[in-house]
Specification:
- Helix 6 packs antiparallel against helix 11 and helix 10 runs antiparallel to helix 11.
- A four-stranded antiparallel sheet has the order 1-2-3-4, with no helix packed on it.
- It has a domain of 284 residues: Outer membrane efflux proteins (OEP) (Up-down Bundle).
- It is of the alpha+beta class.
- It is elongated, with a radius of gyration of 40 Å.
Length: 478
């Protein structure tokens, strides 16, 4: 039988076996579920979405604007993420280069002295060489040429790998946007916490004055035998306790300032702020938009979507490894044993070869990669669906929290007003001996706690507006 026919059937058989084997282990990709409810719980949808506002529009405080701007430039973690994007971009170049021909220049030289009593040495010794045409000894070898190697991407293995790298690059960009969202939100939350601490410090200082005034009164009452030493000591202890609370708040202020400085990427320093306006701050009005907007607004959802797309392409690349691969190599150049003959036309050499390679036996590694790619794709589907679910629940929780905190704040305001009036009443009753000192101390303590709780509620309201803004996907555009 003709050898060409044998080679032809061998190649066809190899291809058919590879295709049949690949078909026998074919697996189904898992499809993702992108559906979301039409509403956020019982809340009606808005036509406006606050998450689409840039942070400069959403936050009105100029001091907060300055902090966020500096952080987006100097934050070390964000800058580290920028390098991750560069790494992903370079990965695209690597994948692109794999399906283009590899072309190189080769220059070489060598020297060879064959031993006389060997088969080659014996043949050279017995060869009839004409005078003047003797083979030099030792024999030098000089060569220069261009070579190329190329794997024809018949099944799209290399192209799909490049597309997967592009999707992962886009995923890192979305990861950076998600980091920006969290950074903006964390600075805003810390800033509002700092304003609240300033307000609490002012309340404590005012209460120290009130308690000191009551302390002086009880000492005068003791001198007139209308109060005893126990009352004096209890009032003194209350003043000391409130003074200690003042230093605790000052420490919290320092730590909160330094946390903001860390996020901004600078060493500890005073954080400029508008603390006097805390009582007048009104929580931002939130427009939730449609739940489906989360798919386009949330960077973490888009990141998970890009990772999912990349995992699907990984399956295609892994599957293509079962198919035959076509490799082509070529070279052209000059080679001679003497430099003066190097560029002689008779020294020209060239080559062109192609090979078709298909896995046939012991393909466990290829199967394992294929199954792993499928498992990672299923993981990516679950991660994508989980990210959507998490985003929806975050928005629903924060929207509910806004209403509940507003109701809490209204009631706390009434409680503070009542207890503030009770301080004056209890002091007057104590002076006229119609109330004992414990009632005065208890009223002062309850009023201080209520004021703290009111400030805490206002801070939680402000933080919630930040949290829902982040949950809606806001903060990464400017």
């Amino acid at each position: 039988m003709n050898k060409k026919i044998i080679y032809k059937y061998a190649v066809i058989g190899c291809v058919l076996l590879s295709l049949a084997a690949c078909k026998s282990i074919n697996i189904q990709e898992k499809a993702e579920n992108k559906s979301v409810p039409e509403h956020f719980s019982s809340i009606q949808n808005d036509t406006i979405n606050s998450g689409k506002m840039n942070w400069e529009q959403y936050f009105s405080d100029p001091h907060l604007h300055t902090l966020i701007s500096e952080a987006l430039t100097n934050n070390q973690e964000l800058n580290i993420m920028l390098q991750e994007i560069e790494i992903s971009k370079n990965e695209i170049r690597v994948r692109k280069g794999e399906y283009l021909p590899f072309v190189g220049v080769k220059v070489g030289g060598g020297v060879d002295k064959v031993a006389r009593y060997t088969n080659i040495g014996a043949m050279e010794a017995t060869t009839d060489i004409k005078p003047g045409k003797e083979m030099p000894e030792p024999l030098t070898d000089l060569g220069i040429g261009v070579y190329a190697n190329w794997e024809a991407d018949i099944w799209g293995k290399l192209h799909n790998a490049r597309k997967a790298a592009v999707n992962r690059y886009l995923a890192t960009i979305e990861g950076q946007n998600f980091m920006k969202t969290n950074l903006v939100a964390e600075i805003a939350e810390s800033y509002y916490e700092l304003l609240a601490l300033d307000n609490e410090l002012e309340i404590v200082q005012q209460n120290i004055e009130i308690q000191n005034s009551a302390f002086q009164i009880v000492k005068l009452l003791k001198q007139s035998a209308r109060a005893n030493e126990l009352a004096v000591k209890r009032f003194q202890a209350q003043v000391l306790k409130t003074t200690v609370l003042q230093y605790e708040i000052q420490q919290k202020i320092t730590e909160t300032e330094n946390h903001i400085n860390f996020l901004v990427g600078r060493f500890p320093q005073h954080v400029e702020r508008s603390s006097s306006a805390f009582d007048n701050l009104v929580p931002q009005t939130i427009y939730a938009g449609l739940p489906a907007d989360l798919l386009a607004n949330r960077p973490d959802i888009k990141q998970a979507e890009m990772e999912l797309a990349a995992s699907k392409l990984d399956i295609k690349s892994a599957k293509a490894r079962f198919y035959p691969s076509l490799g082509i190599s070529a070279g052209v150049g000059y080679q001679a044993f003497n430099p003066k003959y190097l560029f002689n036309p008779q020294s020209l050499l060239y080559s062109l070869a192609g090979d078709l390679v298909a896995p046939l036996v012991n393909r466990n590694a290829i199967k394992a990669d294929y199954y792993n790619a499928n498992a990672k794709q299923i993981q990516a589907v679950y991660n994508y669906e989980q990210t959507i679910l998490k985003a929806y629940i975050e928005v629903a929780n924060q929207l509910s929290k806004i209403d509940n905190l507003q109701n809490t704040y209204n009631l706390k305001t009434q409680e503070v007003d009542a207890l503030t009036q009770s301080i004056t009443i209890s002091n007057d009753l104590f002076k006229s001996a119609r109330a004992d000192y414990m009632e005065v101390l208890l009223t002062q303590r309850e009023a201080l706690e209520a004021k703290f709780e009111l400030v805490e509620t206002k801070m939680q309201q402000l933080k919630t507006t930040v949290a829902v803004y982040r949950a809606l996907g806001g903060g990464w555009t400017n």
